[in-house]
Design brief:
The chain has about 120 residues and is α+β, with helices and mostly antiparallel strands. The protein contains two helices and five strands; from the N terminus they run αβββαββ. Bound molecules: guanosine-5'-monophosphate (5GP).
């Protein structure tokens, strides 16, 4: 387990989490500290530490993440223009990044203010 990221340990079922989606490229879990009624993390199985570290070889992985987020929004019943959802990627301290294994936050289920905090 040493050297694995938190999310790799969750994927390996070493740390419990509610996994709501999985495919060949990525998986999604319920956030342990939800910031909205729906708060899911969409995570690539291949570790990219943070989005600003991504390289051209990560292009397919990054695309797969957004496609999965769209599918998950449908699965969770928020893929409708009278509902809706927000995708967030935090990179670095100022953005509040805490887990250095890039992931997309999918937030929904309440009015999401703009600009974000
Ligand atoms: P970041 O701050 O890096 O953008 O997002 C990390 C997210 O992971 C946070 O929203 C945090 O609540 C979530 N998180 C941290 N530890 C765990 C855990 O053990 N299980 C789950 N399901 N989520 C976690």
């Amino acid at each position: 387990m040493a050297g694995m990221t938190l999310f790799q340990k969750i994927l390996a079922r070493e740390i419990p989490a509610t996994i709501v989606y999985e495919d060949d490229d990525c998986f999604a879990i319920k956030d342990i500290n939800p910031q909205a009624p729906v708060h899911v993390l969409v995570i690539p199985k291949t570790v990219i530490p943070r989005v600003g570290d991504a390289v051209p070889a990560d292009q397919a992985t990054l695309g797969a993440l957004l496609l999965a987020a769209g599918k998950i929004s449908t699965q969770l019943g928020v893929n409708a223009t009278d509902k809706g959802f927000r995708l967030v990627i935090n990179h670095g301290r100022d953005a509040g990044e805490t887990v250095p294994h890039m992931h997309v936050h999918l937030l929904a289920g309440r009015d999401l203010t703009w600009p974000p905090g």
